[in-house]
Amino acid sequence: MLLSEIAADLGMKVTGGDAEITSVEYDSRKVKDGSLFCCMQGLVSDGHNFAAQAVEKGAKALLVERLLPIDVPQIVTPDGRVAMAHAAAAFYGHPEREMIMLGVTGTNGKTSTTYMVKSIAEAAGKKVGLIGTIRNMIGDTILETGRTTPESADLFALLRRMADEGVELVIMEVSSHALAQDRVAGIPFRVGLFTNLTQDHLDYHKTFDHYLEAKKLLFRQSDLAVINIDDAYAERMTDGLTIPIKTMGIQHRADYTAINIDIRTDGVRFHLRTPNGEGPVRMHISGLFSVYNAMGAAAMTQAIGISFADILKGLESLSGVSGRLQSVDTNGRPFSVYVDYAHTPDALENVLTSVREFAKARIVSLFGCGGDRDRTKRPIMGEIGGRHSDFVVVTSDNPRTENPEDIVRAVELGVQKSGTPYVSIVNRRDAIAYALSILEPDDILVIAGKGHENYQEINGVKHHFDDREIVEELLNGAETTTES
Prior knowledge:
By secondary structure, the protein is α/β, with parallel strands linked by helices. It folds into 3 domains: 3-91, MurE/MurF, N-terminal domain (Udp-n-acetylmuramoylalanyl-d-glutamate--2,6- Diaminopimelate Ligase, Chain: A, domain 1); 95-317, 3-Layer(aba) Sandwich (UDP-N-acetylmuramoyl-L-alanine:D-glutamate ligase); 326-475, Mur ligase, C-terminal domain (Protein-Tyrosine Phosphatase, Chain A), CATH 3.90.190.20. 33% of the residues lie in helices and 22% in strands. It has helices at 3-10, 51-56, 80-91, 110-123, 152-164, 176-180, 202-205, 208-216, 234-238, 288-303, 308-317, 345-358, 377-387, 404-418, 428-437, 467-475, and strands at 14-15, 23-25, 35-38, 61-64, 74-76, 100-105, 128-131, 136-138, 141-143, 169-173, 191-194, 225-228, 245-248, 257-264, 267-274, 277-283, 326-328, 336-340, 363-367, 391-394, 422-424, 444-448, 455-458, 461-464. The strands form 5 sheets. Strands 9-8-7-10-6-11-12-13 form an 8-stranded mixed β-sheet. The protein has a 6-stranded mixed β-sheet with strand order 17-18-22-19-20-21, sandwiched between helices. Strands 1-5-4-3-2 form a 5-stranded mixed β-sheet. The longest helix is centred in the middle third of the chain and has 16 residues, at 288-303.
């Protein structure tokens, strides 16, 4: 594709001639002969400083925020991130226009909701693409993912592949980082869903207001908004929206609601009411939050014409979501173990209060907090864990470049405030072993924070570590070691 054609699609001009473009890149290490190298100002480095290196590797043109003294054609733009997204969309032939695009944002519930939407759409006979935290998928084909929402150049390449493989509908998690960084710029979402908003990512957004405004950006490019009206920030999320709004909720009158909720060990049952049908739902994922996610999924899919019968079928056929209140096989022992991705205060509270609904004896919670992230939530999570548990095991999560003992001490302050008995064991494997050793009949152990993750990041290095594998190895008496 000619650079001039990409520029025309962007409504811009090319300085210094034209070039045949073979790929759109933002990482100079991935540049190949014929690439358009996009120079962006990042949090750590400035892509303009790598432009010469990219040209040496074969880049035939540059997308820049300031004209560079390099003898190749250049598109100059005031906003490199937005321009890169539109350039990638143009280069890949606008695949976002060939499929129904659905986006989910919020602090918690994004992953589970996207899996529910996928299951419902497949029940309706559609081929679905999924983009999210755990993995990307084209139908049943699994594609690994490095972040919740890919960088725009990677995202549009993925969308092109999805369209070429016959995908009709794409359901994607849209993170606050992605929205703030314009990774989804130019994508017309048929429906945007807001799940909830609680404290997270303040290391990046700095203030809660900025975090909220980042989430709200999704609705600037959506045709319809679905809002969790029970969330404390629902009114601020809808303030100023000019698109149609559908609501979901249990505590307040809403377009989509649930009654007769019965939370069980093996799932949840409830009666779902929608504008176009109502009926009983039996889901294999437990917790009240699963009811909210199901209402959101129902609202999104009904908005694009999927029948209520297929919504019920899709919700009931979903067996579970990896790392979301996922039961671990205890090999016949008289207690239960669950792993969950809960790594925010609200998520931890949700999972523990959900478990309390069906717990017959003690709840033992095991969790920590990630390093190099929002430090203010550490004592908050400690207090929540203590308040909703009968015993707490504080341990390491992904310390990254921080000292894990410092993180544990911060969490301890909150647990101490709750008055609940606890123990701190920094080594996560040893902590799990201890927690298993104190379980009594009918106790429930909730291992929170990592969920689907199969690694632990220590000093910038990722080591294989899967909470589920560790539990099974310990219960089966197998010996294993991990770095701490």
